[in-house]
Amino acid sequence: MQIYPAIDIIDGKAVRLSQGSFDSVTVFNDEPSEAAKDWVEAGADYIHIVDLDGARYGRSFVIDIIKDIKSKYNVNIQTGGGVRSLRDIEDRISAGASRVIIGTAAVKNPELVREAVKLYGDKIAVGVDAKNGMVAVSGWEEISSVRAVDLCHEMKKYGVNTIIYTDIAKDGMMSGPNIYATKELIEKTGMDIIASGGVSHMRDVENVKNINAAGVIIGKALYSGALDLKEVIEKFG
Fold first, then answer.
1. What is the DSSP code (8-state) at residue 118?
2. Can you give the residue ranges of every domain in the chain?
3. Which CATH superfamily is 2-236 part of?
4. What would the pLDDT profile of 71-108 be if each residue is shown by its tens digit?
5. Kind of pairing between the strands at 162-167 and 192-196
6. Active-site annotation holds for 129
7. Which of 8, 51, 171, 192 is catalytic?
8. How far is CA 84 from CA 25, 104, 116, in A?
9. Is-catalytic flag, 8?
10. Helix ranges restricted to H, 164-211
11. What is the pLDDT of residues 17-36, one digit of tens each?
């Protein structure tokens, strides 16, 4: 199972939110590349970078950050937030991203996903962020009428293999991931599902591995010291 330490970006700084609220921001590092350095030294070979400003405002703010991290460390980068066009995808891949995540646009402009997969194949993933089973968009500030499992099935038809699934109610709350909902997506879609949100203990990582998730994203628990990335990678990576 792939372990993805997360770096969420607001105003060029590494932060964490609680339940996706922009009113609940904690800055963990003024320099995202320093956060990346810690994770690479702990053994990470993939980092998850989210442009929270991009998710909120619909344009990218992290191109230079991706370039900086990629130039300094031999690490794969998975990135999302604010991806609204083929140009956004091209810019991030050109900057060094190995995988680009389409979120809001998968709901509002699904044709973008179809075109992106044709051009970039497995470099494209879709982020499915849900609350009570319904997909949230626009930096989690809007709940759509689309069911998470239905969106996954539609994306699979377009050729998408990888889904990043986040339960908003769990994100940043250190209360454990939504294992039931994640398992349901894995079983009903047969896709590679990366679990995100709420991971705070080794047993959470073990639970995610036991449902055959393709990966797990860990954020706040690493910054707070609740989990040691090196130990997680050695045991579950």
1. H
2. 2-236
3. Aldolase class I (3.20.20.70)
4. 999 899 999 998 999 999 999 999 999 999 998 889 88
5. parallel
6. yes
7. 8
8. 24, 8, 11
9. yes
10. 179-189, 202-210
11. 765 566 667 888 889 999 99
